[in-house]
Write a structure and sequence with these properties.
The longest helix has 17 residues. The chain is an alpha+beta fold. The chain has one domain. The protein has a three-stranded antiparallel sheet. It is built from three helices and five strands, in the order ββββαβαα.
């Protein structure tokens, strides 16, 4: 059987479609959101891909759906990435994915 890429919404963050995760072995934890989509938390050891993407500036902490257990850490990582001007924060006014999607629905 051929393997196929699987696109999954990720838990606690929204990333840039241009971002690529590091080439490491990741363990995935899945849940289902209110739209019955799979949502994942991906880990390599103690670190999650979700945290790495935010820390390296390739994703926003998705405030609307953050779980309390992740909220403070994800928000601090995003604030630090903004301060350092890395990833998408190199742009003076990056557009969050949820605003991009909303703009597409109104056009």
């Amino acid at each position: 059987m051929a393997s196929m890429p699987l696109r999954l919404p990720t838990e606690g963050f929204q990333g840039s479609p241009l971002a690529r995760p590091p080439k490491e072995r990741w363990n995935r934890k899945f849940s289902v959101d209110r739209y019955r989509r799979l949502v994942c938390l991906v880990r390599s050891g103690p670190r999650s891909m979700n945290e790495a993407m935010i820390e390296e500036g390739w994703a926003w902490a998705y405030r609307k759906y953050l779980k309390a257990s992740e909220a403070q850490e994800f928000l601090i990582l995003e604030q630090d990435a903004r301060r350092r001007g890395v990833g998408l924060w190199q742009d003076s006014n990056p557009q969050p994915p949820w605003e991009f999607r909303k703009a597409g629905r109104t056009n």
